[in-house]
Amino acid sequence: MTTEFVESTDGTRIALERVGAGPVLVLVDGAAMYRAFGTSRALAQRLASSFTVVAYDRRGRGESTDTPPWALEREVDDLTAVLAHATGDAAGRPAAVHTLSSGAVLALHAVAAGAPIRALSMFEPPLDLDGDPTADAAQIDELAQLVRSGRRREAVQAFHRGIGMPPEMIAAQPETVLEVLDGIAPTLVYDMSLSRTGAVSEDLLAAVRVPAQVLSSDTGSGPLGGWAARVAAALPHGEHRTLPGSWHGVPDDVLAEAIRGFAAPLLASAP
Length: 271
Fold this sequence. Notes:
The protein is an alpha/beta fold. It has helices at about 40-45, 70-85, 105-110, 135-150, 150-160, 165-170, 175-185, 185-195, 200-205, 225-235, 250-270; strands spanning about 5, 15-20, 25-30, 50-55, 95-100, 115-125, 210-215, 240-245.
């Protein structure tokens, strides 16, 4: 696959790639992931028979650049630019978007702002609508301080504890993976900020007036399944589905079928 680039509103260069043919489906990664490090390429291959699948590196990771200071609105601009590039913009063709974890926040804001997204699929958005803003702010400040002081490995470990990763999974991470995470540690602060309590309100969810499915694993994701159900219930056209999986993940083939079954009919019927 050939890497393409699109320029976001603030001049940040966003790297992307596409595979397949058909209506456009954009994949939005969650924290600590990008095209060469994560699940999006494997998932794209499984979906390529039904869609033109576009995966991109969110700012500050992979081949994308970064432009400080970070703001949620800038990442929404990035997604909007990717959508325009992928669909040809002038035609205004609608696309589907599938997001993993914190990537859902970007997509929810983009839909509410009028982005041409016809169908929105989200896997375990880390949105606790009844969370503690003070505790979230303290956690984000701790992570940011570790990054600023150059203690990136500690920041990675603090992030994993903060998102509820099981201790055995943290302990089992190989050094090669940790080295990659060290390199993109500043973006972990971005994702924690995306998911803070209040980043997505019930009013914003009510403004997301497109069909949306919220997926969760049936095993080991702690409160994420309940949060997914709550988000789905707050969406005007939301549905919650549980898939067989493990902590914060399900097999690619299972996830691909859930996305295809949801998005393909909606894009086929789009004007």
